Amino acid sequence: MIPPDRWRRVVLKMSGEALASPASDETIDASVVRRVSKEIAASRADLGTELAIVVGGGNIWRGTTGAGEGMDRATSDTMGMLATVINALALQDALEREGQPTRVLTAIEMAEVAEPYIRRRAIRHLEKGRVVILAAGMGNPYFTTDTPAALRAAEIEADILLKGTHSGVDGVYSADPMLDSEAVRYDEISFMDVVSRDLRVMDLTAITFCKDNKLPILVFDLMKEGNIALALAGREIGTLIR
Ligand code: UDP
Questions:
Q1: Residues contacting ligand 1 via CB (< 6 Å)
Q2: What do you get for the CA distance between the two ends of the chain, in Å?
Q3: Whole-prediction pTM
Q4: pLDDT by residue (tens digit) across 5-25?
Q5: Ligand 1 pocket: which of 19, 84, 134 to mutate (most atoms <8 Å of CB)?
């Protein structure tokens, strides 16, 4: 399962909150974005892995926030999708300043800002060594970015979906490690066990999609220095779900 040297093509799912600052109330912390981008650019250059990033928007807006206040759910979700575009542009800027060519592709058309998501175009960019940042989720409300991350990974025939965490939890645990000191981390777990034990690592829709399409998921701590390179290289960190 784990490749001898590296993955060929991957999708990295990053939450919007990974770009925010734990230390301040900044929505997007430039120093955090710079650090993550530096690591992504350096490991991509070393390994040559084709990399697409699906970025979330939770640091700015989540559909459920507005819906909880009585807002129309579809409108609120659209705001969430637009939030992911803001994060994608921040990431693009930082990656390019590290010398890594990128393209932002959006699932909601906004030609003045970014290219539309077209599967074959995304693959072409990857083949040319560009990091593809996929924004605006799937373009449809009622989803979170976990599901488009899984969908795009299948569409572009990625080897694996890398789900980077940012909350200090470095994989899948038997219970919530923040609440239960007895919780143990799995090195590997099946899709079935994640679902039947209700281990909330990703949205259930995304998990079942990956199961149906035989797409493995690596859950790992995105914020720990050096982990992006290890994840791209297919090293045994975090938890592999397959
Ligand atoms: N969203 C959506 N459709 C999609 C992807 C995202 O409607 O295909 C909306 C949804 O409201 C979600 C918000 O965009 O809450 C931001 O994405 P997400 O919550 O996944 O961000 P993250 O938690 O990963 O930062």
A1: 15-17, 56-58, 62-63, 77, 80-81, 83-84, 137-138, 140-141, 143-145, 148
A2: 9
A3: 0.96
A4: 679 999 999 999 999 987 778
A5: 84
